Amino acid sequence: MFLRSVASGLAVGIGFVVPCLWPISFIGIAIFVGIVVKAESRRRVVLSSFVVGIISWLFALGAIFLSVLPLDWYGITNDIVQMLLVGISLVISAGVASIGFVFAGFLFNLFYTDSWRDLIVLPIIWVVSEFVGALLSYVFWFGSGSYFGPHFSLGWIGYLIADDKVLLQISSIGGVFALSFIAVFFGVLIYKCIYTKAYRKKIYRIVFVMCVSIWLVIHMLIAGGKILSTSYEGQQRVSLAVVSRQRPPMLYITQETEKKYIDEIYNTIKSLRNVDLLILPEETAFFKSVDTLNISMIDELKSIGVNGRSPVIVDSSKVYNKDGRSLSRVAYYKDGKDITEGYKQFLLPLGEYLPNVYIALMRIFGFGRLVDVVQSVRDYVPGDASVIGQVGGAMVSTRFCGEAMSPILYNDDVLKGSKLLINISSLSWFHSSPVVYMQMQRIAKVRAVESGRWFVQSTNKAPAFILNQYGNVIAETSMGKTEALQMSVPILKKDTVYTRLRRWVSGI
């Protein structure tokens, strides 16, 4: 039982670090179903589900946690201490997140009927379990930076199939929830093709072959340009430029170093022309730095806009509220003045604030000084709302980095009228990890398709990219280079089924 649980966890989780192996997750789910429905006791169901869950989440979270090493930018130089802090945090985080697997395994065992209804009931249970697991994770990670909701969805199984162009489109019907449903549907179907009653196997195998055949046909239609090849003729457009830069992680920065990186940004964008919207990476603090360093660039920015007018510029920085707490602020600037502002709502535990349980444990084990250092520099609180503003008559929304993980926040902005989705992010704390970047882009694809909007991301220490409403990568900068990517992007207004469903639910 233990070895099968380990095999299931490996099969489910491997796609989080090796994208091309995503189909193996279906086999992992099939093994998981067999383990929990045949378990001799509820205790074995719980233990087996926990093993599968923690291994899967170790894969999902591993890149994020392990790529923060070395922690020298935190002032920690002892290698053993670094590895202990990161390793323990990774295991605890994966263990908490695996509660969703335990919940699903328990309900699978309870409601499995060995009939066709399992193909519908078990995927629904899984989706509900992922949602509940995310809410329970919120409870565990509670602290000064908590923002209520099922926002931490990084390890949800639906993201594993987001690299497939056909299956990805299903998110337009039900977001990542629909993708998770489909992944578990195929896992249950594979299980039934092998282990159900003999006279039913043929039916399930016919269904499986039919599903794969339809999938292959749609892939051929996409390759031949028969579907998902929309013409944007006559659509309103916005000419935007999105920037990637290479500022390393720093807790403290001198004015000389700050000027170096501001000059690098300016030298990258000054050759642009006819730009309506310029998007800078997370916490570039361009205008704040220009002010502090007395650099005269504001008037020169008019040369990159349309007809000598300054473009709308998305810039962000760290600010403080009246209580002296840190917030991530984003604003749209015009002629050097902010015209609309918003704040980051969903903050990442450990990276942007310390959960109460961690503060207590670290103080108990003698890391009180580290707690004080982290809280003085990286202890953020959530803001009231994201920023939605107008560019060329089109409403656009901007959110920060990890907020793309939320299955609801960007779609909330679409419900408010946003026609273009912007994300400003940084991978500097993750040392430009290609796996973390892959995970970010995979999640962004789901956000684009579920909302039916183009998605644009500027990034520090990783490429910037532009996705269309089908999740296709239309353009991308180079890894390791400071570059500006300019493109005329269509403004889409049609709602997806997912958006309509959420609009209907919010109107009840």
Describe this structure as you would to a colleague:
The protein has helices at 2-13, 24-37, 42-66, 79-97, 99-111, 118-140, 165-168, 171-195, 198-223, 255-269, 286-293, 356-364, 368-378, 409-415, 434-451, 497-507; strands spanning 237-245, 277-279, 312-320, 326-334, 337-343, 387-391, 394-400, 420-426, 454-460, 465-467, 473-476, 483-490. By secondary structure, it is α/β, with parallel strands linked by helices. It folds into two domains: 2-223, no CATH class; 237-347 and 382-507, Carbon-nitrogen hydrolase (Nitrilase/N-carbamoyl-D-aminoacid amidohydrolase, 4-Layer Sandwich), CATH 3.60.110.10. Strands 1, 2, 3, 4, 5, 6, 7, 8, 9, 10, 11 and 12 form a twelve-stranded mixed sheet that branches. Helix 2 (24-37) runs antiparallel to helix 3, helix 2 crosses helix 8 and helix 12 runs antiparallel to helix 13 (368-378). The radius of gyration is 24 Å and the shape is globular. The two termini are 46 Å apart.
Report the structural category.
alpha/beta
CATH architecture of the largest domain: 4-Layer Sandwich
Number of helices: 16
N- and C-termini, Cα separation: 46 Å
Largest sheet: 12 strands, mixed
pLDDT averaged residue by residue:
91
Strand tally is 12
Cα-based radius of gyration, to the nearest Å: 24 Å
Q: What share of residues are in beta strands?
A: 15-25%
The CATH topology annotation of the largest domain reads as Nitrilase/N-carbamoyl-D-aminoacid amidohydrolase
Taken together, the total number of domains comes to: 2
